[in-house]
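Sample A.
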Amino acid sequence: MSSSSPVTGFPPANWFLASPTQEEQVLQLRFIMEVALLQAYFMQIDGTLNKLTTEPSAYVGAGAFRRVIIGVMKLW
């Protein structure tokens, strides 16, 4: 008697997901690291933009400040 699914004629279901291969694990880890790097990068950009908008005179003159902000906003 062979094992089969409750529906006659179909092969047994694979109830357990296969473990990821080593290559898949490396790809998953690489993806996680890239996401973390992007998150850190954008947090740094956000912090820099926040400093420039809250204390502009501490970093640049008024005219240069406006040019920097306009340039940054064009990037978004």
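Sample B.
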Amino acid sequence: MDDPEHARLRRMVSGAFTIKRVEAMRPVVREMAGPSGPVRGDPPRRTGQPGPGRLPGPGPAGHRPDARHHQAFGAGTHHCLGQPPARMELQVVYPALFRRVPTLRMAADLADIPFKYDAVIYGVYELPVTW
């Protein structure tokens, strides 16, 4: 017998992901792929960027509480499905962390933190902290 929680989660899955609906899309995908078969190449990584004046030029973004139109989770067809749970986790985790360790702070200058400029996912290689 299924775990009741698993059954509840299955009921929440959109009908768009049923086998019947996915199979119905197969001819459309084949037509779009053309006679040469599936489209090949790297996935688009730098799409949906904001227009001029929305954010400062390229480079590390730093902390800007007013940066509401950033591309951390993509936009449009490149919108990350993990955005809502990731935002919720951050809204819960950071306040809890700073409540439990109120003296937590960076142990290095921002200029000394090695950023991942060449990675698919932007971030830091390490972030030394102290408390």
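B remarks: Residues 4-33 form one domain. Strands lie at 105-106, 129-130.
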